[in-house]
Amino acid sequence: MTKKEFCRHHQIKLSTFGYWTTRYRRSCKESAGGFVQIDPGGAPLDGMQIIYPNGVRPSVEGYDAGLIGELIHLW
User: Fold this and answer.
1) pLDDT single digits (tens) 30-40
2) 67 — phi, psi (to 5°)?
């Protein structure tokens, strides 16, 4: 289905569809790849788990900054 057909089917203007798809793409780019601050609250660190967007969850026991960096760059 083309954009034009989609808009006709859902009774929206093509320009409105374009506006919202552009806005959505920009919001996805802004939120993707950012870092999240973690506050362990003084609790000892037993390990870490990285969750990739595809659902894979590698776990690291203890704290190995080099290994964690490699896992982050794999994605």
Assistant:
1) 666 667 777 76
2) -65, -40
With respect to residue 65, please indicate whether it lies within any of the assigned structural domains. Answer: yes
Assigned domain for 37 exists: no
Q: Six-digit token pair at 16?
A: 């409105």
Q: Which helix or strand (DSSP H or E) is residue 61 part of?
A: strand 59-61
Chain position carrying tokens 């990285």: 50
Residues 2 and 24 in one domain: yes
Rounded to an integer, what is the distance from CA 3 to the centroid of its chain? 26
Q: Residue 33 and residue 40: Cα distance in Å, rounded?
A: 21
pLDDT digits (tens, 9 = 90+) for 22-62: 988 888 776 666 677 777 676 666 778 888 888 888 888 87
* C-beta neighbour count of 71 within 10 angstroms: 18
Apex 32 CA angle, 47 and 57, nearest 5: 30
Say what the pTM is.
0.39
